Amino acid sequence: MSRFRPAMGWLHNWMGLLLGWLLFAIFVTGSFGYYRHEVTLFMTPELRPLAAATVSQEEASRRAVTWLSANAAKAESWSILLPDEKSPAIRVSWDGETTGEQLLDPRSGAPLDPAPRATGGGDFLYRLHSDLHFVSPMVGRILVTFIGVALLVLLVTGLVTHRNILRNLLRFRPGKGWRTRLDLHNLAGVLGLPFHLFVTLTGLVTVMMLIQPWGVASVYGASGLGAFAQDSFPSVRAQPPRHATAPATLDLAPLIGRAKHMLRSDTAGEIDIEKPGVPGMRVSIAHPIRGIVQFRKPSITFDPIDGTVLGTTNNDLSSVSLMHSQLFGLHVAHFAGPVMRFVLFCLGLVGAAMVATGHLLWAAKRWPKADAKVPHSIAAVDRLNAAVFAGLPLAIATYLWSNRLIPADLAGRAAEEQTAMFAAWGVALVVACIAPARLVWTLLLAAGGLAAAALGGLDLAGQWPVWLIDLILLTGGLALLAAAIRSFRVLPIPPRA
């Protein structure tokens, strides 16, 4: 036992050092994933006036069908997303000889004019959390999965290493160099431990087959994950309609009412229409993604002529499949209301703080006394810490600013927004490498704080602000500015107390 704790401490320190920078980015972008729809609305100001529209789902569905009948009558299938508090426009798409998608004004049923700008919105930050970037999504997801496993190891070894972690949980010693960072690290790690375990385990369950495919491979062979998914989450084949004709005019309102009653929801989710306007036509209405824990939404398929139920999907999952779907739903938290999502967002940032303070603690404990020369390895870690922990907020603020500055009608502007973000992060790395050590943290924190606070303030002065995102930007910007002022008063890492 005398050797066990030091071994766990060594593993905790070095694994945390090597993976912490990427873990920080995963925590921060994952936290914004809880508000990805709000971020998307923030980045599409053309949609904001629609938020004040009060159009029922039944009326919105009529306008969507009218537009599709006039513009995509020969399509093999239609899909309709009705407006809600996260997406105020009607989104219609069609598939067949041609495919397409269009956003409609729910007040008139006409295409939005001006058309909303193309943007990655909050979905880009969400995908960055799960799929990384500059690698294929599958490779990125596998890497994030292994990092999730490493995070579990870090959490367990951290508890083993800090033997007095519970006794000193609320102990805080300001101005004590590495001891101050140890107290902050303990506080962020232990207070957020239930969340850290919960979000890590639920995330790993959703992608467990990526790192443990042997059981599926031994049973399904060449059919692989596709056949396994079909057996685990079977798509119920709906019965064909009993009528040999299609309705002359499709009215979705009665079907929406029945679906809401049967799904026990006050709103309807995605509507899919097979073979619109021809015999064999069927209408499937899904439960909205919010309001349920499970990730796979139940849906009901109707005969559009008399409303007969032809089939259901995801209503009768096995116990194991339902548990998997619910764990996935717990991870992405679509079920969460405003208060719960805010709590989860804050806990995600606590996880990022845990990682950052751990890195600062590692360097602070090895920082020499004031009259000694700083080893190159310690100085390099400190500069990388500044590039990641102060550079990522600047990069995200740049991503949001680029949405305002890049012309709305520019082709490929969504990719340009992403390029601007990573370019800003690259500049932060260059500044961290060449700027005087005393000024590195101050420069990067001040730049990120000014960018975030200015953007939030300007948006609040607009006609249709996205209040929550604006307040996050303002609060985060002011916090970064306060940290920049604090960093200017002290050395990059104070000597050990």
Automatic annotation (TrEMBL):
Pfam families: PepSY_TM. InterPro entries: PepSY-ass_TM (IPR005625). The chain crosses the membrane at residues 142-166, 187-211, 342-363, 384-402, 422-455, 467-488. The keyword Cell division does not apply. The keyword Transmembrane helix applies. Keywords: Membrane, Transmembrane, Transmembrane helix. PANTHER family: IRON-REGULATED INNER MEMBRANE PROTEIN-RELATED, PEPSY DOMAIN-CONTAINING PROTEIN. This is PepSY-associated TM helix domain-containing protein.
